User: Which sequence fits this backbone?
């Protein structure tokens, strides 16, 4: 397995262990991880700390030139908010662990020139399916849906 996707899965597991939603992300620049994160909306009482946002926050400020050489890994298809950040910083590629349990605006992101690679990883899917089945109210909150 891709070691960067494995790192994102480790982040997802950590988020679940903390009582949060099992979604993880890593930011890779020139072949090395420069940021890691997981969904911490529950843990931090945050409105915006999806895995990708936590990852980017933990990476700190990068130059526009650096962002354009990154690959963002996420265990789940990025939502509108996280996809918007990819577009804002002109990240060229996103590797998505799975998009069966949730699919963000992938076609729009592709139309803006971002390469999306959907891996359809069984562990990413299992983590989300089990979480959604056990905590549908928390999942619906996370994606802005009513119960």
Assistant:
């Amino acid at each position: 397995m891709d070691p960067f996707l494995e790192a994102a899965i480790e982040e997802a597991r950590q988020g679940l262990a903390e009582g949060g939603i099992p979604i993880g992300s890593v930011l890779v620049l020139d072949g090395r991880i420069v940021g890691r994160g997981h969904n911490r909306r529950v843990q931090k009482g945050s409105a915006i700390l999806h895995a990708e946002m936590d990852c980017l926050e933990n990476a700190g400020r990068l130059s526009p030139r650096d962002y354009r050489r990154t690959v963002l890994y996420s265990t789940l298809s990025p939502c509108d908010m996280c996809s918007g950040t990819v577009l804002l910083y002109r990240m060229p590629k996103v590797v998505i662990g799975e998009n069966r349990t949730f699919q963000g605006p992938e076609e729009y992101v592709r139309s803006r020139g971002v390469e999306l690679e959907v891996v359809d990883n069984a562990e990413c899917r299992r983590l989300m399916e089990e979480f959604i089945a056990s905590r549908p109210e928390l999942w619906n909150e996370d994606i802005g849906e009513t119960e």
